[in-house]
Amino acid sequence: MKKLPLLFAAFLVVSASGLRAGEPSDIHTLLRRLDGLLDRREEFLLRHEARLDSLKSLLCGDTLGFGARYAVTAEIAERYFAYQSDSTIAYLRRNVALAERAGNADLTIRAKSVMAMCYSMNGRFLEADRVLAGATDTLHMSRATQAAYYAAQHRQNRECRSQSEPGAERDRFRACEEYYARRALETTGDISKRFYFAYLVAVDEGDYDRAAAACDSALACAPPASHDYARAAFYRSETERFRGDEAARFEWLVRAAMADVQGAVRDYGALGGVAEELLRRGDAARAMRCIRVAINDTQAYNSPIRSWRDMAILPQIEQAYSERNARLRAMYVALILLAFLFALSAIGGVLFVLRQNRRLNAVQQTLRESNGKLAELAASLRETNADLSRQNIRIADANRIKEVYIGGFLKTISEYIYKLADTYRHVGRMLRDGRSDELRREYAGTDVRSDELKEFYHNFDTTFLGLFPSFIGEFNRLLADDARIGVRRPGSLTTELRIFALVRLGITDTATIAALLHCSVNTVYSYRSRMRLRSLVPERDFEQRVQSIGLGDDAAELSGT
C-alpha cells in the first residue's frame, strides 16, 4: 500500500506532461473512421484467426516441453479471452490439466484463476466459485499467481455486485471488489493491469483526475489497435462521464470501439455504448449498424449475459426508427405540397418567360443592328488611328532628320564660305606677288572634286549613322546571310548602304540618288534591284521596311500594314 502514492504521482506526471494517446479529432471524423473500420471487420477477424491457427500449429508436435506448451496454451487462451468464451475455457482447461500432470500447483491455481475470471465475465458465478474454492492459501502462491487470483476474485465480486439488488449483499460485494482491486494492484507486474486497477482504486476514492491520469498512462503504453488500448479508452470515457463532459466521453468511447474492431474483439462494451449515444443524437441508421455488429459478435462470443445487455437497446432503436419514419412521412407530404406549388409557379414562370423572350428577341435584333454599325465605326476609327499613328511617327522622324540635316547643311555652307574666302585670299596674294606660274602649278596637281567628294561622303556617313546608329545591323537582318554587307571601317558606309540610307531619308528617286552620290543611274538601279532580290522579305515591301528602320517595332508593324 505504501507504493500507491508513488504510483499515482507517476500517473499525474505523465498526464501533466501532455501524454494523451490519440490525437484530438472532430467527432464526425472519428465516426467516419469507425465506419471504415466496420467495413473491414471481416479482414480483422481473418487476421486474428490466422494468428490463432499459427499458435495452434505449435501444439501439434511433441517437441515442446512443459513450460513452452503451457506458455503457448496460455497465449491462445488469452487471445480467445475477448474473442470466444468457449474456446477460452477449453484452452484454460488444457493448461489446468498440463499443470496438474506436471504437479505444479502454482500454475494450476493461476490457470484456474483466469478460468474463474472468464466464468464471472459470462455470468457463470457458480462455476467461478467452484474453480476458486480450493485456492485460499495465497501465501504460498507466486506473485504472478497472486495477481491472477486477486484479479479473478475482483472480477467475480464486481460482476456479482452489478447483478445484485441494493442492500447489504451488494455492499459486501462492493467491499470485496475494492479490497481485491487494491491487492491486485500491489501484486500484478503487468503494466496494463496495473494501470487498470489503479484506475479502479482512484474511482472508488472519487479522485477522477487521478483516474484519468491512470487511463492516459495506460493509453500511452498500449498499441492503438490492441484490446488494452480499447479497455483504457473505454475507462477514459467512463472518467469523462463521471466528470460530466459528454463530448469527451463520446469521443473516447468511439476511440475504444475503433480499437476493439481493429483488435478483433467480440466481448466489448464500447460499440454498444456508441450505438446508444448515436441513438440519443438521432443517428438511428448508424446506431443500428453498430448494434447489429455488436449482437453478431456477442453471439459468436457465446455469452448470454452479454446478449441480454445488447438486446436491451433494440426497443429503443425500433422506436427511433418509428419516429424517423413518421418524420419522413410528414416531410414527404410537405415536399409533395411544395412540389405542387412549385409546378404552378413554374408554369406561370414559363409563360412569363416566353412573353419576355419575344420582347427580348426584338430588342436583341435592334441591338445586333446597332452593334454591327458600331463595329463598322470602330473598325474605321481603328484604321484612322493607325494611319494617324503612322503619320505621327513619320512626321516625328522627318522632323528629327530635318533638324539634323539643316544644321549640318548650314555648317557645311559656312565651312565652304570660309574655305572659298581663304582660297580667294591665297589666289589674290599669289597674283599680286606675280607668282601666277607657281599658282598654276599648285592647282594643276590637286583633284579638288575627289577631295571634296570624300569629305562629302564622310560628313554624310557620320551624320546618318549619328541619326541611325543601328542602321547597318537592321539593314543586314533584312538580307540573306550571303548578301549581308560589311564596312571597311567603323563609322563609314559603302555605296550600297549610302543608296539605302538615302531611301531611309525618304529619297527614293533613282536619278536624285545618283546625282547626290555622284554615280550613274544604272549603278543605283542595279544596287537597288540586287538588294530587293536577295532580301528575306517580299520585294514590294523591302524598301518600305528600310524606311521603317530606327522607328521601333510598333512603328514598323504600322508601316507594314
Automatic annotation (TrEMBL):
Q: Which UniProt keywords apply?
A: Membrane, Signal, Transmembrane, Transmembrane helix
Signal peptide position in this chain?
1-21
* Domain (DUF6377): residue spans on this chain: 260-514
Q: What is this protein called?
A: DUF6377 domain-containing protein
What's one Pfam family here?
DUF6377
Q: Which domain of life is it from?
A: Bacteria
Question: Which InterPro entries did the record assign?
Answer: DUF6377
The question of whether Aminoacyl-tRNA synthetase is a record keyword is answered with no
| Bilayer-crossing regions | 330-354
What organism does the UniProt record list as the source? Alistipes shahii
